[in-house]
């Protein structure tokens, strides 16, 4: 029997198979969220952009998946290089020294798998802010650079606790003591700020503010939202890293906040616009999921409902800010993920309770439960730091890529349709409806399409 076999046998004796099964199932649920996001985003764009929009999510599965295994896990959860700022990317390069480890009763590979899908969807979320106008090759390059320079460090700050996968972890989790159970800061505020930065670098879509840019397929949007809600139970309850009472309580809080946020969004729509929409229902679901993500281990069910209502109404209002301030956040990444993440992160400082939180896991009380401002200021500082860091660094990355390899497609290409230009494909082959079979146009043909001849 080799040393490796002995090590594996010793590790197996300390593995909780129930917890391991839950973490692996949760990882699969979260993995499904990225195709769900592709459907959600894909339905929200015009028909000439649907494939490109979906591909921007799918490519993250490939690029970030490989980067995570090679250096991303080590950069996020490896031994700290100093002051809680960054894990050593070479310590566990290629998952060296991780495959036979056990962390808190689950195998090291299970923890790696669960965290990998968080990294993938965090990157994919950014794409919604620059729909219709980004070069696919440059976006692919951006996914690797942004994950390495922005997401992996932020994950280390927020998720790496001292003594779990390494002796010393990130400064936000261990020194500032911000509560972020499943990623309100590291994922949603991070992605929302990055989306705003890229939207400013690439500029507005042709016709933004004057031409109709309605979602082309709301059925896809609602299917995508449903898959996101389904997978999000793995996102939040899986972050308990076990199948006990904490995971069950988090599951209930996630349901409560999401349901309330959908109702809040629709209620605001009804009073503001006179009607409730399917797009509003789907967007309200996502807003509630975003807001409860950091707070799901610290709020009571009643507090979760309150948070969801506030998040739904606030995000429904915030999506209009792009028209007021003149930035083109195509699919409302800023209004939903940045604003929703802030609402949830600050909500902990207001609504956290030690008396009726999931499994009594909350260690602090928020302002409304007699805890004063102590936790609220910590949450505010953590949110602000991640927001500023992500915005500034992402803007720099986007600017350099725009000036070197080019990030935005030309106006003529945008009018012709990014699916044809970037992928030489169309989302819907409707040629048979017009008496023949429509073949793909070559890219050089698509580039000559005039504004008058552009698709929907």
Keywords:
456 residues, mainly alpha, two-stranded antiparallel sheet, globular, disordered N terminus, disordered C terminus
Overall geometric form: globular
- Determine the number of helices (DSSP H or I, runs of at least 4 residues): 17
Quote the average pLDDT. Answer: 92
Report the sheet with the most strands, covering strand number, pairing sense and barrel closure: 2 strands, antiparallel
Please provide a brief summary of the model.
This protein is mostly helical and 456 residues long.
Describe the structure.
The structure is a single chain. This protein is 64% helix and 1% strand. The chain is mainly α and 456 residues long. A hairpin with a 2-residue loop joins strand 1 and strand 2. The longest helix is centred in the last third of the chain and has 31 residues. The radius of gyration is 22 Å and the shape is globular. The termini are far apart.
How do the helices and strands line up, and which of them pair or pack?
Blueprint: H1 3-12, H2 17-44, H3 50-77, E1 102-103, E2 106-107, H4 108-126, H5 136-159, H6 171-176, H7 184-202, H8 218-237, H9 245-273, H10 278-295, H11 301-318, H12 321-325, H13 333-351, H14 374-404, H15 411-416, H16 418-423, H17 443-446
Antiparallel strand pairs: 1-2
Helix pairs in contact: 2-3, 2-4, 2-8, 3-4, 3-5, 4-5, 4-7, 5-7, 5-14, 7-13, 7-14, 8-9, 8-10, 9-10, 9-11, 10-11, 10-13, 11-13, 13-14
């Amino acid at each position: 029997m080799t040393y490796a076999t002995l090590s594996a046998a010793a590790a197996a004796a300390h593995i909780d198979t129930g917890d391991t099964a839950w973490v692996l199932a949760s990882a699969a649920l979260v993995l499904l969220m990225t195709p769900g996001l592709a459907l959600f985003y894909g339905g929200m764009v015009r028909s000439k952009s649907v494939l490109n929009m979906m591909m921007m999510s799918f490519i993250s599965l490939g690029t970030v998946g490989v980067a995570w295994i090679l250096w991303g896990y080590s950069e996020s959860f490896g031994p700290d290089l100093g002051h809680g700022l960054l894990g050593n990317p070479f310590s566990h390069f290629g998952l060296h020294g991780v495959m036979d480890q056990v962390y808190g009763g689950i195998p090291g590979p299970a923890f790696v798998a669960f965290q990998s899908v968080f990294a993938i969807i965090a990157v994919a979320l950014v794409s919604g802010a620059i729909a219709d106008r980004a070069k696919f090759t440059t976006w692919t390059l951006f996914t690797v650079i942004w994950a390495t320079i922005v997401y992996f460090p932020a994950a280390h700050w927020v998720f790496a606790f001292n003594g779990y996968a390494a002796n010393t972890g990130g400064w936000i989790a261990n020194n500032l003591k911000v509560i972020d159970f499943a990623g309100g800061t590291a994922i949603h505020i991070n992605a929302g700020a990055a989306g705003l930065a890229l939207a400013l670098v690439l500029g507005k879509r042709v016709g933004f503010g004057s031409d109709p840019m309605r979602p082309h397929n709301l059925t896809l949007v609602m299917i995508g939202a449903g898959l996101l809600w389904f997978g999000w139970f793995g996102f939040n309850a899986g972050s308990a890293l076990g199948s006990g009472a904490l995971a069950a309580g988090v599951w209930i809080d996630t349901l409560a906040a999401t349901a309330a946020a959908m109702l809040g969004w629709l209620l605001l729509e009804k009073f503001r616009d006179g009607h409730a929409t399917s797009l509003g229902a789907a967007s309200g679901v996502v807003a509630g999921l975003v807001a409860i993500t950091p707070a799901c281990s610290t709020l009571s069910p009643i507090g979760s409902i309150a948070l969801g209502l506030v998040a739904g109404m606030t995000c429904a209002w915030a999506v209009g800010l792009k028209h007021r301030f003149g930035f083109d956040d195509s699919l409302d990444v800023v209004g939903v993920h940045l604003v929703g993440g802030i609402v949830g992160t600050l909500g902990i400082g207001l609504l956290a309770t030690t008396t009726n939180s999931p499994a009594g896991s909350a260690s602090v009380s928020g302002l409304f439960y007699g805890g004063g401002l102590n936790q609220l200021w910590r949450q505010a500082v953590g949110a602000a730091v991640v927001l500023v860091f992500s915005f500034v660094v992402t803007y720099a990355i986007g600017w350099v890529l725009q000036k070197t390899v080019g990030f935005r497609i030309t106006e003529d290409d945008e009018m012709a349709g990014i699916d044809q230009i970037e992928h030489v494909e169309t989302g819907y082959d409707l040629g048979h409806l017009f008496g023949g079979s429509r073949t793909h146009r070559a890219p050089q043909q698509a580039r000559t399409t005039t504004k008058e001849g552009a698709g929907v």
